[in-house]
Backbone:
């Protein structure tokens, strides 16, 4: 797949992509490096970034405060810190959370009048985001290719997505070596997120030739590595993956990000958000739990059934395998009461994702899914 054609993000892929393209990091006079506390340093990404900035004569400050499921207030704090340090562009490095947070910080930083929730009010987003560079260190969200910034609001009970025409990264550096330090379990979860993006994008009414090519590529690559153990011969890293497998998963995640930049996602995402926020189930696994139902319900639609058959053929697998093996790979088992299930659904029942597939599930069908999966 040719990543260079994706617009408006210029995606630079391959080993040592930052070192070999250091001049692209000179987007301004001073960068704010947005990251989590440890991971981006441990994998070597921050060291590569700071060395490249030094080579370009660009100063930087750091904001290493991003946790999983980044809270909007923390990003608002990051925007204020960015202004106080005189930073004029953002380098977001890490998994999906730091990348998403970097986009929000870029918005808050250039709109000092905005309060925390004003980021969701287009009329109050007077100025564009500061320029953004994205450096993913996981193979999952594809945030480096998309404008979305998923933030936690309501004291950690809900997620809400911010996006703006200016929240796309200007440059993204996609280097598989940054994933070599990831654990097996974490790598599986992020790969399942990429798989969910690919399937949900392929079925979206907003899909086009570009998004479908990217989604099919991503789904086939993740299926080959995660479910068929392709390219398993050779030295394995700490997470149990070969370098070739890491490369395939990293590029698949980026391709899936390209796909959802055109289409958005389907109902497994909002249904999974409540499990992540209330029970700590990692995002990719939470989405995977609902992927079998997403496929099963969409098979009831003539259009959905045709698209699914088409995708399964491109992946080289059967729909029955997808329905059973993707949720099983999440290896998550929780038990809820009927009342707890309804509360979790109520928090996400109004999401726009439900309409983003040929078959649109009802509120009652959301309950049916939750009860079948979790209520004993």
Residues:
């Amino acid at each position: 797949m040719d990543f260079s054609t994706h617009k408006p993000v210029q995606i630079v892929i391959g080993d040592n992509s930052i070192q070999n393209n250091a001049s692209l990091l000179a987007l301004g006079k001073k960068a704010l490096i947005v990251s989590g506390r440890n991971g981006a340093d441990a994998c070597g990404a921050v060291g590569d970034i700071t060395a490249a900035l030094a080579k370009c004569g660009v100063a930087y400050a750091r904001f290493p405060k991003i946790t999983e499921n980044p809270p909007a207030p923390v990003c608002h704090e990051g925007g204020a810190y960015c202004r106080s340090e005189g930073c004029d562009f953002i380098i977001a490095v890490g998994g999906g959370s730091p990348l998403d947070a970097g986009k929000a910080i870029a918005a808050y930083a250039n709109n000092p009048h905005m309060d925390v929730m004003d980021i969701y009010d287009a009329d109050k987003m007077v100025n564009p985001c500061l320029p953004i560079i994205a450096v993913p260190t996981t193979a999952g969200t594809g945030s480096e290719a998309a404008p979305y910034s998923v933030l936690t609001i309501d004291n950690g009970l809900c997620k809400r997505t911010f996006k703006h025409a200016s929240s796309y990264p200007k440059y993204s550096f996609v280097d598989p070596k940054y994933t070599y330090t990831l654990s097996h379990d974490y790598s599986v979860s992020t790969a399942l997120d990429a798989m969910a993006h690919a399937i949900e994008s392929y079925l979206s009414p907003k899909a086009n030739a570009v998004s479908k090519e990217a989604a099919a590529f991503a789904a086939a690559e993740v299926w080959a590595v995660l479910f068929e153990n392709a390219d398993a011969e050779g030295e394995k890293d700490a997470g149990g993956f070969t370098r070739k497998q890491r490369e395939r998963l990293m590029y698949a995640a980026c391709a899936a990000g390209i796909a959802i930049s055109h289409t958005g996602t389907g109902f497994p995402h909002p249904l999974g958000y409540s499990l992540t926020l209330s029970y700590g189930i990692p995002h990719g696994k939470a989405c995977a739990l609902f992927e079998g139902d997403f496929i099963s319900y969409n098979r009831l639609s003539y259009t959905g059934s045709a698209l699914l058959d088409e995708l399964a053929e491109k992946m080289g697998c059967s729909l029955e395998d997808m329905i059973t093996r993707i949720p099983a790979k999440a290896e998550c088992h929780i038990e809820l009461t009927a009342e707890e299930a309804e509360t979790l659904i109520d928090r996400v029942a109004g999401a726009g994702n439900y309409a983003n597939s040929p078959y649109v599930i009802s509120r009652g069908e959301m309950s049916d899914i939750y009860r079948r999966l979790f209520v004993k």
In short: Residues 200-374 form a domain with the Dehydroquinate synthase-like, alpha domain fold (CATH 1.20.1090.10).
